[in-house]
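Hello again,

I reread your note about wanting to compare the complex against the isolated chains. To keep things tidy I'm splitting this into two emails, and this first one only covers the full assembly. Below are the input lines as submitted, including protein chains and any nucleic acid or small-molecule components. They are followed by the predicted structure of everything together. The single-chain runs will come separately.
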Amino acid sequence: MLKKVGVVAVLAALCSVVVATTAWGSAKPRTLAAATGSVKCGKKVTIGVAYPETGPAATLGAPQWDWANFAKSTWNKSHKLKIAFVRGDTQLAGNNPQAVQVAHAFASNGKILAVTGPAGSQEMEDTASVWKGASIAPVSGSETRVALTRALPGTPRETTPGYFFRTVPNDGQQGDNVATFIHNVLKKKNVRIIDDEEAYSQGLSLQVKQDLQAAGATVTTDHISQQNPDYNSVITAIPHNTQLVYIPWQVPAMAQQFYSQLRANGDKQIVMGSDGTDDPSTFKGAGSYVSGFPVDTSASALKSFQKAHNGDPETFGLPTYTSVMVNANAINNACKAGHGKTTRNAVRKAVAKVKLSKSLSLLGFPVQFLKGNAGKFQGPGDMGGAAAFGIYQIQKNGAYTRVG
Amino acid sequence: MHHLVLFNIIDQIRSLGWPGAFSLLRNGLVLGSLYALIALGYTMVYGILKLLNFAHGDIYMVGAFIGYGVLVAFGGALSPTIPIVPLIILMFAVSMAGSGFLGVAIERVAYRPLRTAPRIAPLISALGVAFFLESSVQLLTNSAHYLYNGYQLGGKNGNFGPLLNPVFTVDGIPVTVVQTLVILTAVALMGVLVYLVYRTKFGKAMRAVAFDREAAAMMGIDTDRIISMTFFIGSVLAGAAGVMYGLYLGDTYFFLGFLFGLKAFTAAVVGGIGSIPGAMLGGILIGLAESFSTGYVGGQWSELVVFGLLIGFLIVRPTGLLGSHAIQKV
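Full-complex prediction:
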């Protein structure tokens, strides 16, 4: 009898411990309200990095993660307030529920003060309300859809001003530059545009197509799957009078392979890629063109990065470096203003005020966000000033020479 | 709307003319040869174990990486340290052997312990192995794309090499060395496989195991060995396809096996899963369907056409072109 009572007593004690522990655990700041409250800055602050770590788009996520880490080590070397990352795998490529899941996880994590990413425009559209509810303004290094920052006729703005920023010029800016260069400088009137069926590619394609058609050029279009490496039949289908083929793709290796297959088929058209194909270590098609950031290749930071990554500049990920720098500066400023304490809302407001010099942004121009509309395509959250794409021609030795 | 699409197709057929049609035929045959080689692995394993080995596409991907590794070990395409013929032979040999042993290892670790389990168990295990291989390669390669640059192999100063020399031309459209190499190697390997399966003692044992594993075991056939060898041969063919892919199309990365594997699986189903000649026919058919739909209708239609064929065959002729109804003991 005594033995039975003892067992019951032990079980009751265990139950009490479990109940008490659970109650204590749930009292910790796990709710969204608590997560948006005041945070002690201490010695280390946390930034969430949302990018495609796995899945078919992991190829695009890898340079973003590499550049984010490079920004972290660069920042931590020279600042008392260190930054740390929590990463979230959004998977991209049509898996927006995963992005929503990451957004909720970041939103309820009280340590996260700012977010770099996500990677895809569609992901931002689907998660905008989550970020807003959590008082977070993501700073993306690769979301280029115009509507994320600017309302256009028939297309309302997809985010609330002050709740989204990007360190990459948008499709409207890039598309305009490219179309102007093709029409006015290269003077090509027959253009083939081949998109890779992804949101980035389709947005740019549409912009360039509209601009070229408005200028009187004849534009034909085709599509390839990002997972299909055989372009021979797509090349066969290119009209004979085509002078230039525009490929706004995200994987430089695909651009190089397209160029090789085009030449192997005996076709002589000029190939022009977008910033997604801007990678001198991979896309080396002599005589081709790419649009890209006017990066200062002599910058010591860029050289250090290349040295650490087998000579590959992984240019697609570079704006993610800038994004981390924007967030780190914003948190630093907010912590100073709050005397060692801050909130997500304070950080969000500080992001809007961040100014990065040309040498700190690595983009080839200083970074400062617009507060109102500017030009034909830019809106609040876009970079203002000299934010623009350059046009580069690929030389026989593979070097990129700026021509526009 | 439908009329507009139809007019566009007719317009495209007219504008490409006979040279375009031959070009698409050539592209389809080359691509189809690759699908056929991979489809053989699916069909052989299904024939003997009734297992859909979804990891097979990833074995092909690993084969492409092994071939790339050999190419780089001997200086790469732009500056090879040995003549290109022995280099290509070496790439094939190492990749085929490596893929073959990988196939055997997968069978031993992931499928054999589940031999007596319900059929859903090895199927799930196959999916697990596929993700395991993809993720492992992703981690090892940091998700990067690696280019064979096969067109430059043997060329000087980065110019195109002999693999792009025309073997013959039709209406001004060249059929290059690399395209001929892909088709002839595929035909030769399929020929060897057919001989092995239908003309040797091993092949007879293989067919016996496929027909009735228990009875074959009672007749003294080492069924485990035959099954291992089947995985080996199927994976060897996938390894060869990986190198051919690398030399012809070149862009090698961790997710490569997914879509290629699915299309090869479609080829196996269309040809009649379990049938070796069916897999070859299915591969060629899928390659041609993809090529002609891309050329005449548009690149965005190619996958719709390929997987539409899969659905169509499953509804209208589930046994595929050369498959036969299995008589089941009840």
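For quick reference: Residues 172-292+390-402 of chain A form a domain with the Rossmann fold fold (CATH 3.40.50.2300).

B.
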